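Q: Convert this sequence to structure tokens.
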Amino acid sequence: MRTVMIVGDTHIHNHQSMGGPYNNGINRRCEDILRVLATHIHRHKPGVIFQLGDFFDNAKPVPAVYYAAMKLIQSTQAEWHILAGNHDIASFDAPSAVRPLAQLSNVHVYETPAVVNVDGVRCGLVPYCSLDANSAMPNYNGVDTVLAHYGLGNAQHQGPDYVSDAWQRDHKNVMLYCGHEHSFYYASMRTNVGSMCQNNFDSNGHMSRPAGVVVNGQAQRYIGPVFCDYGKGISDSMKFTHVYARVKPEDRTPAEREKKLGVLTDYKMVCGATPVAGLQTPEQTFQLTSMEEAVNRLLSSDVETGVLTRQQANEMLKALETL
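A:
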């Protein structure tokens, strides 16, 4: 039987925050996502790859991103099965961003639920659609494995985009692999595969995250990129592909030195103010829809209430790069 690789959300895209230089229309962060995926494929040489949706980060990838993704797929010997995720869809009545990939001879794309036989294993494939998770997943007691772009429901993860406990009880003998939710967690015969690449700053960072890649049922080590607060103890021995840091003004000099040495790939400045209850990161605080809105809300709200000085506000403005 062929080696089977299951890949979580990849979000291939020219992400702009600390995106770095462009090479043939692909920036550094997009190159890194493709490199991580290629590295896992090279290591494990799978015969079959299931990608659980959000292959792209938006429904209209630029041609250079399409070309780079197709070139990677064509370079493999694997049979690909790619689900449409919510990021791949502009609207439910329009073709998804992943549909053109089906023009490649080794790729199968799924925009509606389907059952396929892969090496004698009956697999239910459930892309993201207008239905909630339970409605999108019909009675699959006749299949061996379900792979879905819906999160794995449990006590901490619930809602219409999560496979409910009731569905799981009714299908207790079905192996279930879930995408959409970016964190990794599992239970007996259930795995939320998570995201293959960290794409923003979060409280957990890389330390608690397997790779968002499962090979023959085994979760793989996370290899990058990493987004972390500066000074969190990441060492060269961890061998992450790229390391991006949030840096306070007082740490800018050593951070710049580490960037020149290649220890840090890049960094962005964050406000050096003492944490205030209720004050979150700029992205969380402002629910950004435009830079103009962010600037207006920052200067007219936070400064006037005394949370930030004007100098600190200017420092925060430098950090307002959306991902």
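The helical segments are 28-44, 63-74, 133-136, 165-170, 252-261, 282-286, 291-302, 310-319.
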